[in-house]
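Supplementary Note 3. Input sequence used for the single-chain structure prediction.
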Amino acid sequence: MKVIKKILTWVPLILLALVSLIPFWLMFSMSTYKSEMIFQNNPLIPSNFLMENIKTIMESNFVHSYLNSLFVSALAMVLSVIVCSMAGFAMTVYQFKAKKFVNTLIMLTMMVPTQIGIIGYMIEMRNLHLNQTLIPLILVWIASGFGAYWMTSFIQSALPMELVESARVDGAGEIMIYLRIAFPCIRPGLVTLALLQFLWSWNSYMYPLLFINKQENYTIPIFVKSLASAYRTDYGAQLTGLTLATIPILIFFALGSKTFIRGLTAGAVKG
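The predicted structure, written as discrete structure tokens, is reproduced below.
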């Protein structure tokens, strides 16, 4: 009976995993074809043109764009986690008159469409003379309304207030309470937010498209788009660039998958 239950559990999971991996396999397989051959052959079977495609993108400033994306995404992730976790800690631990107003303001920021908010952001960056730099691509992710709301909700369910009060009685300062008491309790939430922010920043296309025109500041999405011209689109090279661009994301999720799932499911079951 136990064997049957295991089979009924694992077979659907394996099938779902295989289905979810099909797009990745198709992307890799098509990256091994010459652009003109992609639509003439079976894309499930890899070809032998991968090294040529890699050579093409390496000759087109791919490494520099890759490093730009790593720099922007890593810095945006770290700063966003710090700011949002501190905001969530403050919204949970402290009591102040404007608390409801601030919480409502955070919620409202998530209701404003990005296309509307980006107009004011562009004007702000232009007045600060930060256009054509990587700084706007970092700043936009730091004060994240979702991040602040996520960390507030997570800390409320994961951080016992008794621990905070006990630490205060023992003479611990607020920064020490955050680092020594709160941080270990909210680690799954921090990892979840870090992975999401890295993913969003890494895959962001609209912000680099609006703020970056210089080739030396291209990120991966803009670089992949630049492989197409008015006369020819090198699909093979584009797919090769996209395949290589998924490597950091796969590594991050592989390293933090357990903590990521714990963070997403925290608070789902109360007991």
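Confidence is low (pLDDT under 50) at residues 267-271. The chain has 13 helices and no strands.
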